[in-house]
Design brief:
The chain is of the alpha/beta class. It has one domain: STAS domain (Transcription Regulator spoIIAA). Helix content is 36%, strand content 28%. It is built from 5 helices and 8 strands, in the order H-E-E-E-E-H-E-E-H-E-H-E-H. A 6-stranded mixed β-sheet has the order 1-2-3-5-7-8, sandwiched between helices. A two-stranded parallel sheet has the order 4-6.
């Protein structure tokens, strides 16, 4: 995964998430273990403010998430929740994470291309096809 770790720029680090930019891909790492509607709205608002109107593919790392509310999932998969995202790769490293991500994709049906990955480098590789070439880190 050397390519994905080149040129990592920290955009935001707060109590709910960490957002980085690497080679035209946003890397969003959830820090909260329970995602409710307020946390989901905060995360989307934070992402939109640091990306300044640019659209990006996003790698979502779900390492800490243990549960999410229906309202949060509905919002995150909505047009407003997906604003500014070209495609989403959800990286999971646990059975619970895989179950939550699968549940999210099949029930909430995000409005952007979305896939689950157990290998972070494969997730980055898939997202590279969506990178907007004229955006600089």
């Amino acid at each position: 995964m050397e390519k994905a770790t080149e040129n990592i720029k920290l955009l935001l680090d707060n109590e709910y998430s960490k957002i980085e930019l690497s080679n035209g891909i946003i890397i969003a790492t959830w820090k909260a273990s329970i995602i409710n509607l307020d946390i989901a709205k905060n995360a989307v608002g934070s992402r939109l403010s640091v990306t300044a109107g640019q659209n990006y593919p996003v790698l979502i790392k779900m390492k800490s998430i243990k549960e999410s509310t229906k309202e949060a999932r509905d919002f995150l998969s909505s047009e407003k929740g997906c604003d500014g995202i070209i495609a989403g790769a959800i990286y999971v490293d646990s059975i619970i994470g895989n179950m939550l991500a699968t549940f999210f994709i099949y029930l909430n049906k995000p409005r952007i291309p979305t896939k689950i990955f157990k290998d972070e480098s494969k997730a980055i590789e898939w997202l590279e096809q969506f990178v907007v070439k004229d955006i600089k880190n």
